[in-house]
Amino acid sequence: MDHAALFVEHNRLFSEVIHNADESTPLPTCPDWTLGQLIRHVGRGDRWAAQIVGDRLEHFLDPRSVHDGKPPPDPDGTVAWLHDGAQRLLDAVNQAGGDTPVWTFLGTRPAKWWVRRRLHEVAVHRADAAIALKRDFALQPETAADGISEWLERLAIQAGSGDAAAPLDGDTTMHLHCTDPGLDKAGEWTIRRCGTGIAWSHEHGKGTLALRGGATDLLLAMVRRVRVTDTAIQMFGDDGVWEKWLERTPL
Predict the structure, then answer these.
(1) Which among 131, 170, 17, 30 is positioned nearest to 79, based on CA atoms?
(2) Total Cβ atoms within 10 A of residue 57
(3) SS3 45
(4) How far apart are CA 171 and CA 181, in angstroms?
(5) pLDDT score at 165
(6) Alpha-carbon distance values, 202 to 130, 168, 171, 192, 217 (Å)
(7) CATH 2.60.200.20 correct for 143-248
(8) How far is the C-alpha of 77 from the C-alpha of 30, rounded, in Å?
(9) DSSP state at residue 26
(10) Which positions fall inside the Mycothiol-dependent maleylpyruvate isomerase metal-binding domain (predicted)?
């Protein structure tokens, strides 16, 4: 999967959704945020990642200190600002080298990690904007499925730290199955508890709870952008597992 090309594409799609939209529009999926705050969050986030990679940082960078971290006041300028931020990240990764170790909020990772992270960040935030503006939203199944995997990879690290309860109890398991054609194993996930966190694989199997549906719906349900009941997702087994999962996983 060409994460760099997809990142550019989804940056463009996000820009198309927000272009000329009322920035005071509230976001139902991001409480207390407006569309304008979302735009700034996305564009500044790309520049933040670009500066981390460009400076080969091995420590946290305060996002408020990022160069050109605020969009221009005009819609066309904002779109150009968004596109420029994405290109800055790609240029930084190319110049540093994709395997160069840099700081991330999960510890040191290769610089190219940031491209995949920002791809899925902008993809989900495009859903936030589309939902707020009452527009249709869909991802290519391969991109949505990779988004689920990327989310689980991060969660497997984050859920095992801190004092929060594990997303799954005891020997409880959860199975996700995409119905989109052509995904094969990349469209299945079995998730188990591992210590105080989780472990997952692409293996097929039954779970204490199973969710079956389109990759876009499954991704948005996992990151709490839609309710399962508002989608075509089928749920089998103990739905209490799902409620606990949502309560115990971060936004």
Answers:
(1) 17
(2) 13
(3) helix
(4) 31
(5) 81
(6) 30, 18, 18, 12, 18
(7) no
(8) 24
(9) B
(10) 14-130
What are the structural domain ranges in the chain?
Answer: 3-132, 143-248
Q: Which residues of the chain have pLDDT under 70?
A: 160-163
According to the model, what pLDDT value does residue 162 have?
A: 65
User: Whose structure tokens read 């949502």?
Assistant: 246
Query: Exposure string (b/e) for 100-121, b if CB count within 10 Å is 16 or more?
Result: eebbbeeeeebbbbbbbbbbbb
Residue type, 145: A
What's the N-to-C CA distance of the chain in angstroms? 25
Contact present, 149 and 193 (Cβ < 8 Å) = no
pLDDT of residue 160: 64
Element (H, E) at 244: helix 239-248
At the fourth CATH level, the homologous superfamily of domain 3-132 is dinb family like domain (1.20.120.450)
Which pLDDT does position 12 carry in this prediction?
Answer: 98
- Kind and range of the H or E run holding 182: none
